[in-house]
Amino acid sequence: MREIFFISECMPRFGGYKKRVDTAMELLKKFGRIRYYYFKDVKDAIKIRGAIKLPETNIAEKVYNILTGWGSLRLHVAPSIDAISFMKDEIRKRKPSLIYAHNMSGIMLASELTTDIPIVYDFTDAISVKFEQLGKVHPSFVTATLSKLESFLIRTIEFSLKEADLALFISSRDKEQSHYRGRAIILPNKPEIPKKVRVRKEFDFVTIGNYKYLPNEIMLEKALEMVKDEYKLLVIGKGVEEAVKEGCGKNVVFKNYVTDYYREVGKARVGLFPLKIAMGMQNKALDCLSLSMPLIISPVVKEGLKDFLTKDFLEAYSILERYDKEELDYLYNGIKANYRVASKKAGEAYKKYVEFYKEQKRKVEKEVGRLLD
Question: Cα 109–365–306 angle (5° rounding)?
């Protein structure tokens, strides 16, 4: 049986990272047995049977964290010599049919391997955040350092796109990556269709995200500022305890990610994503759409969803060009007055996403099959 090496940054966990790994795994299982290599354990990681931990990356990550002063953004930018040697030995001994390099750590490692075995590079969200943008909103960033690092990452991706047998972006439709589209296939996350649950609508809005990341904290602050005391807001996410602000009022309820996730999300009428910086928010918006929930989203999130949202859906329900209370009232009242229409359009948009996923998956399977023939 064919063996496929899957090299990744870490063990998959709950959330977007796990979804991306699951999407890739589902794709690859059709072609052979997967042998999973990873660099680091993550709290709450979901173990993959037989996964092998690689020697750690070198000092570059620690230096980068110190320079930015923001420990939660960790980019493995250089695999250790030991990890490269280990993988070369594994390739020599086991002779895999395909190497699948996932995210920056895997890509950096795979680009060091001199081999005639086909390599698929999966970039996921490697540069979906523009580092200069983050530098503007967080004073402890050293912008010059970030600019250098970004140009380094872009050079790596340019090199990888030329060298790779197949280049993939999984769940990366952000406008920052549009100039790579001619040379890479974009495969969205596997759609997750929750069981339809009937719940009482207790909240006006829901906002979802991992609030240990700065852009999501900014989004939360913006949502709190917009709803004030007039609307009921449900906040679901990892790290919400730390993100709770004093004086939120009784109309705001914070919950960590819960087991019955979709049931909780479904308690709100509308998804609210007022975010200026792209940080994977389209995945959270999709969770709302899968429940046929109308959305009010920022232009950046809209950009990430544009492949399958219809024009009239966007015009009627999901453009939040300015972040002010007056516009929020206008949009929310419009949705409330036409709730059935809005929900129907949200459901149609999600069906379109499912079709978009199936079509892209067929394209990728065809390319992977061609590499293995």
Answer: 90
What residues have CB less than 8 Å from 155, skipping those under 6 apart?
Answer: none
For residues 360 and 87, give the distance between their C-alpha atoms in angstroms, rounded to a whole number: 30
| Model confidence pLDDT, tens digit, residues 160-219 | 778 889 988 887 655 555 555 567 788 888 888 888 778 899 999 998 877 766 667 777
Q: How far is 155 from 150, CA to CA, in rounded Å? A: 8
Backbone angles phi, psi at 358, to 5 degrees: -60, -40
Token output for 256:
């960590």
Angle at 249 between CA 247 and CA 253, to 5 degrees: 115
* 292, 343 contact by CB (below 8 A): yes
Strands 33-40 and 268-273, bridge-based pairing: unpaired
| Residue range 9-65, pLDDT digits in tens | 888 876 677 888 889 999 999 999 999 999 877 767 778 889 999 887 654 454 444
Contacts of 47 (CB under 8 A, 6+ apart): 11
pLDDT (average), residues 253-278: 84
Contact partners, residue 136, CB within 8 Å, separation at least 6:
none
Domains of the chain: 3-190 (3.40.50.2000), 203-354 (3.40.50.2000)
CA distance linking residue 285 with residue 271, whole number of Å: 7
Q: What is the DSSP letter of 179?
A: G
Backbone angles phi, psi at 14, to 5 degrees: -65, 140
* CA separation for the pair 363, 367 (Å, rounded): 6
Q: Where are the alpha helices (DSSP H) in 69-189?
A: 81-94, 103-110, 131-137, 143-163
Q: What pTM does this model have?
A: 0.81
Report pLDDT digits (tens) over 229-252: 789 999 888 777 666 666 677 788
